[in-house]
């Protein structure tokens, strides 16, 4: 169907457009922008007077690959104006995995039906379902290591390394936009720098990138950024530093040094280094990441047997009480299936209600839930967040994933509203609208080399978010960023590949998204 979006303020930093224009959509594509377009017979006209017409947002860092198959129309993504999700981050992707790997990445979804042997089979599965948003997949190096070596912490043999490189090359051949690592998670934490250099080598010369959840975002932040840059430079591969921040009050301010390192690497010019950020000072991750190195070497069954009593239990309690990356008194429990009464509660408060020590309760929750349980924790300072988000190499990435409003009730608010936290301050005139749209659409699309998305060039795909700025004040007044849990309710219309996915602020249920392949 032919559509015209009439009389909205069209803002596209990629082309320098900021004007009241009509926009013509024919099929999947934008075919014209002009001050006045006469509608062809039978065209649907969308009156955007007083509204903002923006390129559909490209979320640079998501984990929706684990949940799209359960809610493929993707309403929580579309409500945010997101039309493309970059998936496979932090080393987690549903491929390449054996069918039995249903526990891998389970803190994103406890219902991963099966692993997929490669990107092609996963993409075919999504395409058979239809998706509400486009998907730009990365190959998770944690999945690659899981496929080849399971939870074995030892360095890979030459044969295992050859197989891991083959799996990476296969993913790239099948259209992956790059690879990712999660160096605080099992099994990614077992990968030394030399292993990473060797495994990402197939990316050299492809124009695709290596994204990394750093080995340490706290006391070892500077060393971890140095490792990431060195690894990427040695391999000759562009680098994406994921959700960049400095964790822990003692480390606040260290992003000044790390961003200087990014600048120095870009000045050397061998590779391109970029960072993404989410607009919150709190963060969220799996509670199992608090366990000391080596705890899961034999898997969860063995850990549960060892941790029941005696020296191993004492070792774990001591680590959780003082050496883990977050203290028990900092933790808010995420959505818990085993202990639903703990969901959304501060750990000390929940432990006190039980008359128990918080560290003991924390270990009990970890053992009961395994990989599934998440936590909300303090993360960055406002100053660090402002510094990172103002950097020329920065772009937005929510670190969220598709979920319903009910599922998100005890999870981090970034899952439902991360883009709004970037857009609303700009709509209210406190920050630059041009910069907001660059971070939400223009820069991520360029990073992915998607020349026909994240922009309104003639012939581009019609991925479009039409926002109502009059609703920004109501959103702003609905609690602080860390407290909001509902949908932003800012998008009057969202179009994905020319199809109306949000209409009058409500999802239509249409599944017009594509699994994108890198050129």
What's this model, at a glance?
The protein has 519 residues and is an alpha/beta fold. It has helices at 75-78, 119-129, 141-149, 158-173, 193-199, 221-235, 255-268, 300-306, 310-323, 347-354, 358-369, 382-389, 414-427, 433-447, 472-476; strands at 2-12, 17-26, 29-34, 44-47, 52-55, 57-59, 82-87, 134-137, 139-140, 178-182, 209-213, 238-241, 273-277, 282-286, 332-333, 374-378, 394-396, 464-467, 491-496, 499-503, 506-507. Strands 1, 2, 3, 4, 5, 18, 19, 20 and 21 form a nine-stranded mixed β-sheet that branches.
Please describe the structure with a list of short key phrases separated by commas or semicolons.
519 residues, alpha/beta, 3 domains, 9-stranded mixed sheet, 6-stranded parallel sheet, 15 helices
General description of the model:
By secondary structure, the protein is an alpha/beta fold. It is 31% helix and 19% strand. The chain folds into three domains: 2-55 and 453-507, Urease, subunit C, domain 1 (Roll), CATH 2.30.40; 57-68 and 77-115 and 140-281 and 379-447, TIM Barrel (Alpha-Beta Barrel); 286-377, no CATH class. It is built from 15 helices and 21 strands. The strands form four sheets. Strands 1, 2, 3, 4, 5, 18, 19, 20 and 21 form a nine-stranded mixed sheet that branches. The chain starts with a strand and ends in a 12-residue tail after the last strand. 55% of the residues are buried. The mean pLDDT is 93.
């Amino acid at each position: 169907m032919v559509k015209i979006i009439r009389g909205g303020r069209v803002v596209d930093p990629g082309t320098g457009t900021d004007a009241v224009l009509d926009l013509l959509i024919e099929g999947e594509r934008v075919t014209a922008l002009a001050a006045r377009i006469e509608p062809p017979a039978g065209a649907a006209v969308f009156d955007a007077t007083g509204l903002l017409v923006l390129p559909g947002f490209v979320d640079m860092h998501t984990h929706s690959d684990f949940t799209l198959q359960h809610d493929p129309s993707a309403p929580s993504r579309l409500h945010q104006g997101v039309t493309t999700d970059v998936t496979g981050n932090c080393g987690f992707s549903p491929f390449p995995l054996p069918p039995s790997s249903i526990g891998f990445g389970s803190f994103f979804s406890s219902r991963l039906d099966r692993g997929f042997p490669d990107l092609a089979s996963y993409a075919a599965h999504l395409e058979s379902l239809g998706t509400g948003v486009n998907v730009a997949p990365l190959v998770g190096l944690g999945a690659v290591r899981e496929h080849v070596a399971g939870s074995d912490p030892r360095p890979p043999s030459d044969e295992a390394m050859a197989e891991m490189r083959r799996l990476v090359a296969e993913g790239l051949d099948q259209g992956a936009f790059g690879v990712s690592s999660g160096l605080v998670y099992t099994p990614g934490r077992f990968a030394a720098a030399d292993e990473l250099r060797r495994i990402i080598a197939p990316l050299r010369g492809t124009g695709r990138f290596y994204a990394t959840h750093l080995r340490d975002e706290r006391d070892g932040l500077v060393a971890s950024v140095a490792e990431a840059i060195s690894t990427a430079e040695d391999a000759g591969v562009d680098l994406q530093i994921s959700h960049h921040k400095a964790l822990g009050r003692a480390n606040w301010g260290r992003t000044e040094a790390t961003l200087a390192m990014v600048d120095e690497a870009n000045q050397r010019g061998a590779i391109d280094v970029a960072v993404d950020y989410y607009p919150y000072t709190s963060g969220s991750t799996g509670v199992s990441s608090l366990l000391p190195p080596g705890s899961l070497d034999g898997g969860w069954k063995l850990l549960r047997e060892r941790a029941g009593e005696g020296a191993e239990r004492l070792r774990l309690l001591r680590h959780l009480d003082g050496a883990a990356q977050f203290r028990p008194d900092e933790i808010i429990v995420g959505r818990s299936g085993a202990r639903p009464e703990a969901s959304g509660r501060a750990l000390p408060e929940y432990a006190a209600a039980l008359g128990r020590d918080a560290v003991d309760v924390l270990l009990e929750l970890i053992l009961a839930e395994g990989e599934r349980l998440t936590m909300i924790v303090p993360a960055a300072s406002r100053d660090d967040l402002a510094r990172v988000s103002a950097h020329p190499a920065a772009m937005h990435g929510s670190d969220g994933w598709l979920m319903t409003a009910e599922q998100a009730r005890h999870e981090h608010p970034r899952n439902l509203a991360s883009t709004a936290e970037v857009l609303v301050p700009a709509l209210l005139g406190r920050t630059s609208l041009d910069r907001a749209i660059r971070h939400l659409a223009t820069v991520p699309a360029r990073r992915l080399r998607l020349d026909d998305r994240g922009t309104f060039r003639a012939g581009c795909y019609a991925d479009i978010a039409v926002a109502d700025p009059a609703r920004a004040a109501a959103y702003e007044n609905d609690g602080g960023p860390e407290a909001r849990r509902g949908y932003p309710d800012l998008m009057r219309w969202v179009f994905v590949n020319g199809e109306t996915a949000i209409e009058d602020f409500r999802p239509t249920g249409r599944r017009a998204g594509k699994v994108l392949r890198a050129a």
